[in-house]
Amino acid sequence: MPSTIRKPYNPVEAAAVQAAVERAQTGQASQVGPDPALHSHDAELRWVEAVLRHRLSLHSLGRPIGIRTRDDDTHPLVADGVHFPAVALSISFADRTLDFLATYDDRRRLIFDLLAPCAQCGKPVPTEEINSLGDLGDYLLQTRDGLGGSPRLRTSPAHAADCLALGD
Questions:
Q1: DSSP characters for 53-71?
Q2: Angstrom distance (rounded) from CA 29 to CA 132
Q3: What's the rounded Cα separation, in Å, for the pair 123 and 133?
Q4: Which residue stretches of the chain have pLDDT < 70?
Q5: SS3 content of the chain, % helix, strand, coil (to 5)
């Protein structure tokens, strides 16, 4: 385990680590069922928030977890899109904030990326695709072989213009 892992975890991170350990022990991913349905266009940001809550099983933590949801002015909602912004979500704790970006992949699935500083330019970019509590736990523990970064890492418009990570 890397020495950069810090403890104690906040409630979401602790549950994520537990989910990752359970997945590693059983070999089975947790089943969360279908995402909540969108009922109106005006409710899109609330719907994306509800999907993140669902995917991270935040309802099961026994305490309310606040999520700040807003349009992201940097990233498009779909690859090569310009008219519709992605959705930025933040979960704040006393010691840190987990920042996510919600976009659609090429199969039109809503996906979430954890935002973190680029190793080259330091700008906040999509770093790892996180679509379950276990994914977040694997990222925090850095134990899953499949951790390879977000496909959107190299194409993020948030990079500095001269960043070496662009288009690698």
A1: HHHTTGGGGSS----EEEE
A2: 9
A3: 25
A4: 1-8, 36-42, 80-83, 143-148, 167-168
A5: 30, 25, 50
Q: Alpha helices, DSSP H only, in the chain?
A: 11-26, 44-55, 133-141
Q: Which of 133, 129, 128 is nearest to 22 (CA)?
A: 133
C-alpha 35: how far from its chain's center? 15
Tokens of 148: 């390879």
pLDDT, one tens digit per residue, over 29-67 is 777 777 766 555 457 888 899 999 999 999 888 888 899
Could you give the CA distance from residue 76 to residue 4 in angstroms, rounded to a whole number?
32
- Give the tens place of pLDDT for each residue, 58-77: 988 888 889 999 989 888 88
CA separation for the pair 61, 59 (Å, rounded): 6
Q: Which of 8, 17, 15 is nearest to 142 (CA)?
A: 17
- Tell me whether residue 86 is exposed, middle or buried, using C-beta atoms within 10 angstroms of its C-beta: 0 to 12, 13 to 18, 19 or more: buried
Q: Is the pTM of this model over 0.90?
A: no
- Please give the pLDDT value at position 39: 53
Q: Residue 34 in 3-state DSSP?
A: coil
